[in-house]
Structures are given as C-alpha cells and as structure tokens.
Amino acid sequence: MKLTSVGPVMATRELTLSGNTTVSVVIGKPEPFPDGNGCYCPYQIRGLGSERISYAAGQDSIQAVMLAFKAIGAVLYTSQAARDGLLTWNAGRTLGFPVPDSLRDLAPS
C-alpha cells in the first residue's frame, strides 16, 4: 500500500539536528486496512533525508501504533545523524522512541 499523506495527525515530536535544525516526527491516526484485515499507523520523519510516508501494520490499532513507534525508533537510531551524536530530543541522549529488540544496543539506556 502506498500512502501520499499521514492523514489526520495523532501526534508529533520535534527533534534537534546539529543544535539548530528541526527534525519532525509526524504520526497519523491508525486506520483499518481497506480489506478489513488489521490496521495500519502511518508516520513520516521530516528533515532527516527521505521524507517518504511509511506505516506499521498490526492486528488492531493499538498494535499498529506500538509497532510504528518501534519503526520510527529504528529509523532514528540507525540514522547517521544519531550515530554521530548530532540528533537529540529534549537536550538528552535518548530520542524518546523505543526500538525493536534487535536494535536495543543502539538506544541509550
């Protein structure tokens, strides 16, 4: 499924890149798939390279949101900016998103 918009925005977060540039995470409202099998939660990361709209899928809207958070965390923590220590949130080391277990060593504890 290709999305052209995140649709109605459910939540946003502003991160800082290199101390003066804003990176925005925009999370859309979860929606049921057109075929009725499960739900998807769209999201977009703006200001960190590709600004394509992606989504995470789950059995219901809560699982879709939880998986979207982890997908966002994976993109952020594996970015060159995060690896170089140039991406921050709230002036801290953590970017405020969980990561999948396979990437746990990338996120500060």
The overall pLDDT, averaged over residues, is 93
| Topology, number of strands | 6
Overall tally of structural domains:
1
Oligomer: single chain
Structure explained in plain terms:
This protein is an alpha+beta fold and 109 residues long. It has one domain (9-100). 20% of the residues lie in helices and 32% in strands. The protein has 2 helices and 6 strands, in the order βββββααβ. Strands 1, 2, 3, 4, 5 and 6 form a 6-stranded antiparallel β-sheet that branches. A hairpin with a 6-residue loop joins strand 4 and strand 5 (53-58). The longest helix is centred in the middle third of the chain and has 18 residues, at 61-78. The protein starts with 8 loop residues before the first strand and ends in a 21-residue tail after the last strand.
What is the fold's blueprint, element by element?
Elements: E1 9-17, E2 21-28, E3 31-32, E4 39-46, E5 53-58, H1 61-78, H2 80-83, E6 87-88
In short:
The protein is α+β, with helices and mostly antiparallel strands. It is 20% helix and 32% strand.
What keyword list fits this structure?
109 residues, alpha+beta, six-stranded antiparallel beta sheet, 20% helix, globular
